[in-house]
Specification:
It is built from 18 helices and eleven strands. It has 496 residues and is of the alpha/beta class. The protein has two domains: 3-194 and 377-420, D-Maltodextrin-Binding Protein, domain 2; 197-373 and 452-478, Periplasmic binding protein-like II (D-Maltodextrin-Binding Protein, domain 2), CATH 3.40.190. The chain is globular and about 70 Å long.
């Protein structure tokens, strides 16, 4: 049975077995060769939790960064489809498991308060405070904190099934250390999806330039870096005839934010670390394929026709936001064919765009690469369970149930807002949305970058300085290997 048919059956079960829950239709998450479908079951729920679980009205408490807490939790309906679907999802889990889900909000997202937020978590655990059953962290900081031994190994949790599609793909293979997993991410919070790297394109311009169907290119495995450069050259005009492409011209392909270069790191599947035969991580960056990726991306950024990239533009630095917004305006005004983005840009930036637009995954390196692969900025959410959690089984069951519920209810609601169309009425965009969601993989190098002496630096440097990959790698290898050895020693000693 295909995934779309499976999900429809689950919806029917939900509607007949849980008529008190209401809400939107479950997601029809169809994708090519990248996803594990929900387990077929006679239960009205997508997960495999026991039907008779009852936790007697106990409270499960999540700590979440206040600035972005609405991506995870709401305690009231307000008429907004995403908010209200999230509200219904939370309430249905509370009713099903007889629990109360509480969220403590604390500032911790902005650079000025991140360290204080992290220190609060550490100090509360070391003091034996059992207030929090789960703590939210931006995933790049989860890896920094877990070496201190303050989080539980989630692979030992009775109710968490990491093969289910509401977890990010391959968690237990891609980010475990010493065969332990100290954080989880997925549809419990759609923060990772909001921050997923994608490409938005202008439908009307694609028709004006008589381009081949971009969705078909993706379906046929032909959506590659070379194809991006080819189409960008066709759909661009050097209006001021100065021999370069910048904000004064019609652009074929625009890098919206320099952090989006991390999206290419994931989509081309460059390898930073691999597990050896003993299951230990090793720094392996440096293959011919890795070098070829960097050379190709250097060409795209610096030597291609119709492509605009400014290494100083980002929305992460307040004084650069005006420049970032000006690029947004170029796209919404119809002067740019394709723009790199994060999924939620459609919600926050493209609301008033008059031209129709579509969404695409980031491109593969070439057609020999088998699958598309999606990733996200490392500021997105991950949850860890403190060692002080009073009832890990209950906390794990609530997490599992929330993930399954959001997967079937919240994702199509978010899609409808982002793409301004009913999920079931736009097969092309829905298919692209599914590919981005279902091909999402955490990369060990990117996720552990803050903890391991910047192992991605050779990649980053090579995109801005031609022919620098080998020399930068040579200068970084010893520091990265030393940091990795020290990190693993800390895990072995502190994380029992």
């Amino acid at each position: 049975m295909n995934k779309r048919a499976t999900t429809i059956l689950l919806l029917c079960a939900l509607l007949t077995g849980c008529t008190s829950c209401g809400g939107e239709s479950p997601a029809e998450t169809t994708t090519a060769n990248t996803t594990t479908a929900p387990t077929e079951t006679t239960s009205p729920y997508a997960d495999n939790l026991p039907d008779d679980l009852n936790f007697g009205g106990e409270t499960v408490t999540f700590l979440y960064r206040d600035e972005i807490a609405d991506e995870f939790f709401t305690d009231e309906s307000n008429g907004d489809i995403v908010n209200d679907t999230l509200y219904e999802s939370i309430r249905s889990v509370e009713e099903r498991l007889n629990v109360y889900i509480e969220t403590v909000r604390r500032e911790g997202h902005l650079t000025s308060v991140r360290q204080e937020y992290m220190d609060h978590i550490t100090s509360s655990v070391l003091a034996g405070d059992d207030t929090y059953d789960w703590v939210d962290l931006m995933i790049g900081n989860s890896t920094v904190m877990m070496r201190n031994g303050i989080f539980l190994d989630l692979t030992q949790n009775k109710y968490m099934d990491f093969d289910q599609p509401w977890y990010l793909k391959g968690l237990t293979e891609t980010v475990t250390v010493d065969n332990k997993l100290f954080f989880a991410s997925g549809d419990v919070s759609i923060g990772y999806l909001k921050n997923s790297f994608c490409i938005y394109f202008n439908h009307d311009l694609a028709e004006t330039y008589q381009l081949e169907n971009l969705y078909t290119l993706v379906d046929n495995g032909q959506w590659t870096l070379d194809k991006v450069m080819e189409l960008a050259a066709i759909a661009s005009q050097d209006l001021n005839a100065d021999g370069k492409y910048d904000s004064a011209d019609n652009i074929g392909f625009m890098i919206h934010d320099y952090t989006h270069l991390y999206g290419f790191m994931g989509s081309t599947q460059i390898s930073f670390f691999e597990k050896n035969e003993s299951g230990e991580w090793e720094y392996v960056l440096g293959s011919q394929r890795d070098s070829d990726i960097c050379d190709k991306l250097y060409t795209l950024l610096n030597e291609s026709t119709g492509i605009f990239y400014d290494p100083d533009i980002t929305n992460a630095i307040p004084e650069r936001i005006d420049s970032y917004n000006s690029l947004t305006t170029q796209f919404t005004s119809g002067n740019v064919l394709m723009i790199t983005a994060q999924m939620d840009d459609a919600v926050s930036l493209l609301r008033n765009m008059k031209d129709s637009y579509g969404v695409l995954p980031f491109p593969k390196l070439d057609e020999d690469q088998e699958n598309y692969q999606s990733s996200s900025r490392s500021t997105h959410n991950a949850f860890s369970m403190p060692v002080t959690c009073g009832d890990p089984d209950m906390a794990g069951a609530v997490y599992e149930a929330l993930g399954a519920s959001n997967y079937t209810k919240l994702l199509p609601a978010y899609f409808e807002v982002a793409m301004k169309t009913k999920y079931s009425n736009d097969d092309d965009s829905a298919r692209m949305f599914d590919i981005i969601h279902d091909s999402f993989v955490l990369d060990f190098g990117y996720m552990f970058n803050n903890a391991l002496s910047d192992p991605v630096r050779p990649y980053w440097q090579a995109l801005h300085s031609e022919g620098s990959f080998a020399s930068t790698l040579a200068s970084k290898q010893s520091a990265v290997n030393a940091a990795l050895e020290e990190y693993m020693a800390d895990i072995a000693e502190n994380c029992q």
